[in-house]
Amino acid sequence: MLPASISSTGKFLSNMKASKSSTRIIRMAISEQVKAIIRARDHNRCGYCRSLQMYVLGILEIDRIIPKAVGGTDDEENLWLAWSLCNNYN
Ligand SMILES: [Zn+2]
To answer: Which of 12, 16, 44, 82 could serve as 53's disulfide partner, Cβ 3.0–4.6 Å?
Structure first.
């Protein structure tokens, strides 16, 4: 194997690792404890269509009512459950 190809593969892998870990940090911003509180409060219903978790195709995820990009917070009052279909059409 040529040294040049080894070094470029190594660089590629380290870039993959870096982007993966930064995504994880964003997703972990809301703690599991807060997620459990939101699920209990909303009775496992989607915030948009009020569908129960058991009737939707997919997992209800914690979603911000006011997106973080426009000043929304991670406070409980700004969080609800949403499944991907409703979330994408928001
Ligand atoms: Zn919904």
So the answer is: 44
Domain limits for position 16: 1-29
CA of 48 to the centre of ligand 1 (A): 5
Total domains in the chain come to: 2
- What does the pLDDT average to over 23-29? 53
Q: Which DSSP state fits 1?
A: -
What pLDDT, on a 0 to 100 scale, did the predictor assign at position 24?
A: 47
**Distance set, CA 32 to CA 6, 70, 81 (Å):** 40, 24, 13
Q: What are the residues whose beta carbon lies below 5 Å from ligand 1 (ion)?
A: 46, 48-49, 86
How far, in Å, from the CA of 21 to the mean position of ligand 1? 29
Domain co-membership, 20 together with 36: no
